[in-house]
Design brief:
The protein is mainly alpha-helical. The chain has three domains: 1-27; 52-187, Cytochrome c-like domain (Cytochrome Bc1 Complex, Chain D, domain 2), CATH 1.10.760.10; 192-344, Orthogonal Bundle (Cytochrome Bc1 Complex, Chain D, domain 2). It is 35% helix and 1% strand. It contains twelve helices and two strands, in the order ααααααααβαβααα. The protein has helices at 3-26, 52-63, 126-135, 144-152, 155-165, 172-184, 192-197, 205-214, 259-262, 294-303, 327-338, 343-347, and strands at 239-240, 271-272. Helix 2 (52-63) runs antiparallel to helix 5 (155-165), helix 3 (126-135) crosses helix 6 (172-184) and helix 10 packs across helix 11 (327-338). 40% of the residues are buried.
Amino acid sequence: MTLRRLTILIFNSAFIILLALNLQTNNQPTLYKFPDLKGFPTMPLTANKPTMEGVDLGRFLFYDPILSKNNSFSCASCHKQRFAFSDAPNRFSKGINSEPMRRNTMPLFNLAWYPSLFWDGKASSIEEQVFHPVRAHDEMNLNWKVAVQRIKQSKFYQAKFQSAFGNIEIDSNLIAKAIAQFERTLISNNSKFDQVLRGETYLSEKEYKGFLLINDQTKGDCLHCHTTDADALGTTTKFSNNGLETASHPEEFQDKGRAEITKQQTDIGLFRIPSLRNIAVTAPYMHDGRFQTLEQVINFYSDGINKSYNIDSKMGFADQGGARLNKEEKENIIAFLLTLTDSTFLTNPNFGNPFQNQN
C-alpha cells in the first residue's frame, strides 16, 4: 500500500468516526426546561431528568389505553386535565371493571416536590407511583409483562423510546420513567395568587382578608398543613388526621390510612395533606370524598371537627369542635381559595391529549 493511499484511508476513517460522534451528539435528547417558579421551594433533584423526547413519550403513554387489560382505560381516564388531573366530580373513580375504587382520586400537579404519592404514601417516587394503577385489579388490571410486550410490538413506540432513551431495552422501568417525566412537568404556577406573588396583580379586599384568616392561628389556622405564606405549594406534603372520624380507638377506623403502609399505630387515621391549589375544580374533598362543596369543607373546620384517636396536635380547635368562624369569615376564606385556581394549567395544550393532534 502506498503512503498516499494509507493517508487517504486514515483520513476517511477519521472522518467516519467524527461523523458518527457528531450524529450521536445531535441525537441526544434535549433537557426539558422548567419555568421560573416564584414562591416555590427548590425542585428536588432526580436521576430521571425530563427531556423533551421523554416528556413527549410519557404524554402519549399517559393518554394511551394500551396499558390497560382491554385497551379501553388510560391514566387520563381518572386524571382529567380540566379538573387539575383529578376525576371530579366523581366521589370514587371506576376502574376497568366499572367497580368504584376505594378512595377519592387525587389530582396530579407539582408532584416533583412530593416525597411520596397517594393518600397513604405507598409510592416513594413518581416512577414508583406509575406501577400501581397499571397492575391494580380495580384500575387498569394489566400484567406489566404484557404491557411491555405490547409496547415493544408497536413501531410507533419503538421510535419514541429510541428518541427518548436510545438503545436501552424497553422494560417496565423505562415505561414508568417516561410517564414520570411527563407527570413531573405538570406544574401549576399561574393562579391569581401566583400572579400576586410575582407582582402582576393584587388580591381584592375580600380575598386578602381570607388570606389573613387562613394564616391566623386564632382564626382559620390552616397554615400548619396548607402552606401559602411560606411557599406556594399549598401543602406541607406530610400526613395528618384532621378529625374527620369519631373513632376513639384504633380498631374503630374503617380506613387506617398511612398505617396500612407503615404498620405503625401512630399512623392510624393519617392521610396525605392535599394541596389547596386548584381546589375549586377538584371536588369532592377528603380521602373519601365526603364533602361536595368548599362550603361544606369550611363548615367542617368551623364546627365539625372530631377529637378522634391520633388527631393531629396541630388541630388547635379540636377541643371546641372547630374554629367557630362566622359567615363573613367563611366567605372571605373561600374567596381566597378561589384565587388558587390556575386556569392556564387546566387548558395548557402541552398537557392535553396528544392523540387528538395526530393525523
